[in-house]
Specification:
It is a single chain. The protein is α+β, with helices and mostly antiparallel strands. It has one domain. It contains 1 helix and 6 strands; from the N terminus they run H-E-E-E-E-E-E. The protein has one helix spanning about 10-60; strands at about 70, 75-80, 90-95, 100-110, 120-125, 130. The strands form 2 sheets. It has a 4-stranded antiparallel β-sheet, covered by helices on one side. The protein is rod-shaped. It starts with 10 loop residues before the first helix and ends in a 10-residue tail after the last strand.
Length: about 140
């Protein structure tokens, strides 16, 4: 009598397949999160540009800049909050000598706090900078 050859997969073969799938999933999640940081960074860039435009309007009217983002003029830029539209960044303004220069710093909040670019800065000479590194795409 002939014995039939067993068909199917061994436990070792199944475990190897599971390990390969786990490695591929880990790589996919990591790359997707990096993409998320880059796409949410636009929220901070837009906040810096919006505050800078408001600072220039304020300067046109009062011949100086202000450090108050919230509140009505004179004294404030008229924003209801210093946070970005989607809440991923918060802005602060530092004034220079005689309130004739400013530097806007947008700080990542919540899930965006782990972004490698860290704080984004923008000043009255339109100089853009960041406090982290650009290993996850251009910060500006």
């Amino acid at each position: 009598m002939r014995m039939k050859k067993a068909t199917g997969f061994t436990l070792l073969e199944l475990m190897i397949v599971v390990m390969v799938i786990a490695i591929l999933a880990a790589l996919a999640v990591y790359n997707y999160s990096r993409y998320g940081f880059r796409s949410r960074r636009v929220d901070g860039q837009n906040l810096a540009a919006t505050v800078a435009a408001a600072e220039e309007r304020y300067y046109t009217n009062f011949n100086q800049y202000t450090s108050s983002i919230t509140g009505a003029a004179p004294g404030g830029l008229g924003f209801s909050t210093a946070n970005s539209d989607r809440g991923y960044y918060s802005a602060a303004v530092a004034l220079g000598t005689g309130n004739l220069t400013y530097t806007i710093t947008v700080t990542p909040q919540g899930t965006q706090a782990k972004d490698q670019c860290k704080n984004l800065t923008f000043d009255n000479t339109q100089t853009k900078a960041f406090s982290g590194d650009q290993s996850n795409g251009n910060c500006w």
